[in-house]
Every structure is written in structure tokens, then in C-alpha cells.
């Protein structure tokens, strides 16, 4: 089986694990949030890795960097959803802090990746 370039990116691997953890986390959200916050946070967390994968298939560095920027935007949107989940009492302080730290690391890696791509 062929391994695509995005699968080798540490940033994508972290985004993949983060998405998995978000999907496990939202299982405990109230049922009436299934079409609200649950759906939104699942989509935004998935989009982090999705944009990295799609961008890896682009030809120019500018296009690749653009998709990394989209991935960063999705991570920021996910931070907002994590804040909302915490405000609503759906996640504990410890969960909030853990997910925020993961997202901080991920956004830092995305910024570094974007800068690296634009240098080439």
C-alpha cells in the first residue's frame, strides 16, 4: 500500500489523533447537541487533517501553504468549540486544559509548517 506524503507529516499524525480523541469526547455530550456543538466540533477537528491532506496534493508552495492556513483556521474554530463545551459544563477543567494544550501544540506546528513551505 502506498503511503502519501501527508501521512508522513507529524502535524497530520497529531491532527489524526486529535480528531479521534474529539470523537470519543463528544460521545458524552448531551443528545440534544448532536446537530449543534457535537456536529460542529467534529467537523472542525476533522478539517484540520483534511486540509493538510488536500494541500499536500497541490503543486505550488503558495497553494500548499494556503491549505495549511485553512487547517490552522479549523484548529482555531475547534478551540472556540472547546471553550463553548467547557462553558456549558460538557467537559471538565482537566479535559479543557488537555485539549487546549493539544491544540496549542498543533497550531504551533501548523505555523511552522506553513513557514517552512513558503521558504522553499
TrEMBL record:
InterPro entries: 23S_rRNA-intervening_sequence, 23S_rRNA_IVS_sf. Gene3D superfamilies: 23S rRNA-intervening sequence. It comes from the Bacteria. This is Four helix bundle protein. It comes from Pedobacter agri.
Amino acid at each position: 500500500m502506498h503511503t502519501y506524503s501527508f501521512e508522513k507529516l507529524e502535524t497530520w499524525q497529531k491532527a489524526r489523533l486529535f480528531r479521534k480523541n474529539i470523537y470519543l469526547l463528544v460521545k458524552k455530550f448531551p443528545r440534544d447537541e448532536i446537530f449543534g456543538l457535537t456536529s460542529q466540533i467534529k467537523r472542525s477537528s476533522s478539517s484540520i487533517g483534511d486540509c493538510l491532506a488536500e494541500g499536500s496534493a497541490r503543486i505550488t508552495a503558495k497553494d500548499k501553504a494556503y491549505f495549511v492556513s485553512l487547517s490552522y483556521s479549523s484548529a482555531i474554530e475547534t478551540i472556540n468549540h472547546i471553550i463553548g463545551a467547557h462553558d456549558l459544563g460538557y467537559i471538565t477543567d482537566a479535559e479543557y486544559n488537555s485539549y487546549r494544550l493539544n491544540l496549542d501544540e498543533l497550531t504551533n506546528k501548523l505555523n511552522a509548517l506553513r513557514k517552512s513551505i513558503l521558504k522553499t
